[in-house]
Design brief:
alpha+beta; Nuclear Transport Factor 2, Chain: A; 126 residues
């Protein structure tokens, strides 16, 4: 299995909200955790949460690190009309070439808080 290719395709299917393809990535007993909202999902629940999320989505994997059976990805997801953008840092653990555990941390892309802007500290990354 080319794990890098598999994770890149996974994120494409997440953005496309493809429930049939998403099911194929997971072991039936996989657990998916969204830590920012304190939610834990079964595979079926995750697919509902992902595929019924409103809007048309795009995605781009910005960084991928592979350590044995663990893949760490940083992915930007945005609405196709560019009205919303977020980044997900994901820890994806594989077992027998399927995802057994997915821990995600989401952050909304937004301007720095006013107090930091007022101090004129930091600069744009890109």
């Amino acid at each position: 299995m080319d794990i890098k290719k598999r994770v890149l395709q996974f994120w494409e299917d997440v953005a496309n909200q493809n429930p049939i393809k998403l099911q194929e990535y997971f072991r039936p007993d996989a657990i998916i955790n969204w830590h920012n909202t304190n939610e834990s999902f079964t595979v079926e629940e995750y697919i509902i949460a992902n595929c019924e999320y409103p809007g048309q989505w795009c995605g781009e994997v910005e960084r991928l690190e592979i350590i044995d059976d663990l893949v760490i990805s940083v992915t930007r997801i945005w609405l196709s009309d560019n009205s919303f953008s977020a980044h997900a840092t994901s820890f994806i653990r594989f077992y027998d070439e399927k995802i057994i555990n997915l821990d995600e941390y989401w952050g909304v892309d937004e301007a720095a808080p006013k107090w930091r802007q007022d101090k004129k500290i930091g600069r744009p990354i890109n």
